[in-house]
Design goal:
There is one protein chain. The protein is of the alpha+beta class. It folds into two domains: 156 residues, no CATH class; 128 residues, no CATH class. The chain contains eight helices and six strands; from the N terminus they run ββββαββααααααα. Helix 3 packs antiparallel against helix 4, helix 4 packs parallel to helix 7 and helix 5 runs antiparallel to helix 6. The longest helix has 23 residues.
Length: 297
């Protein structure tokens, strides 16, 4: 027997201005919300202003965030609906992060069970804890949300959601580590997650792993010439930096935020490259397919 559960989640992003420092908050949510994205509804929260002003009443039925996400999950008695909800939210979150750079995260907020067509608060023992907010030691920058965002992201979402929801490999593994890099506190931890994502896409067992990953990645994403060569050398150096961290040669990384941002852009573009082939019905499922493609570039 299965039940239907309703979930609401916070959508948080970094934007121009700080409501906790500025006398007058300048946050403006997109005016073309709500929108429907498969199972998800994204809408302006009744608590849009409550988080910025303690004098504004707070509706406990909705997240304390300017924008919220709502969706339902059908779960049998032997499945934990909150764990199922977290998985769906992480996939959606990864698409937000693939879409553009900047600080953005999604967090489950409240759980309801649908009884007689109406939502009723519910509670589960041994449920997964809600992930804490990312607390990086570095700046991620602004995640742009405007009136154009909803339409453009709608197209982006429907182009790739089916592939991601099917957990096609190696895309899904790379996406997990790409998404995990946003949760890391230090630049060194972030670098490690991003390198693992590249390995998932371009690596294989055997010798010359650094060379293969750097060459395949650079040739896949960049045109012939100096840019391809520069990215090839950059990826090789970054992989060496990864080895120094892993093997204990240093506690952190000497790489700056700018250099890690460059690595993130490479990983983002690499995942999108694999997604493009998957949506065209020609998934890159093994290194040989990738190498065959490189001969055509």
């Amino acid at each position: 027997m299965s039940k239907t559960y309703l979930f609401r989640a916070r959508f948080e992003h970094n934007w121009a201005g700080d409501p906790y420092k500025d006398a007058t908050p300048t946050y403006v949510a997109p005016q073309n919300l709500p929108i429907k994205l498969d199972i998800f509804k994204i809408a302006i929260s009744p608590n849009e202003a409550s988080g910025f002003n303690n004098d504004v009443p707070y509706d406990i039925n909705y997240p304390l965030s300017p924008i919220y996400i709502e969706f339902t999950v059908d779960a049998s008695d032997d499945r934990n609906p909150e764990a199922m909800a977290d998985e769906q939210l992480e996939k959606l979150e990864s698409l937000f992060r693939l879409f553009q750079k900047g600080s953005v995260f999604v967090r489950r907020d409240s759980t309801w069970v649908i009884k007689d067509g109406k939502p009723d608060r519910d509670f589960f023992f041994n449920s997964p804890l809600i992930k804490p907010e990312p607390t990086p030691e570095y700046e991620r920058g602004i995640y742009v949300i405007n009136d154009n965002f909803s339409d453009i992201f709608n197209t982006f979402f429907h182009k790739y959601w089916k592939i991601i929801n099917e957990k096609q490999q190696p895309i899904y593994n790379a996406l997990i580590y790409f998404n995990s890099s946003y949760e890391k506190r230090t630049l060194a931890e972030r670098l490690l997650e991003l390198i693992i994502a590249l390995e998932a896409l371009f690596g294989e067992e055997g010798d010359s792993l650094t060379y293969k990953i750097a060459l395949r990645c650079a040739c896949s994403l960049y045109p012939k010439g100096k840019e391809r060569q520069k990215k090839y050398e950059y990826i090789k150096k970054t992989y060496k930096e990864r080895s120094k961290i892993v093997h204990g040669d240093r506690l952190g990384t000497e790489y700056t935020e700018e250099k890690i941002d460059m690595l993130e852009d490479i990983v983002r573009n690499a995942i999108l490259y694999f997604l493009k082939y998957a949506t065209d019905g020609k998934p890159i499922t093994e290194p040989k397919i990738l190498d065959d493609l490189l001969f055509l570039l």
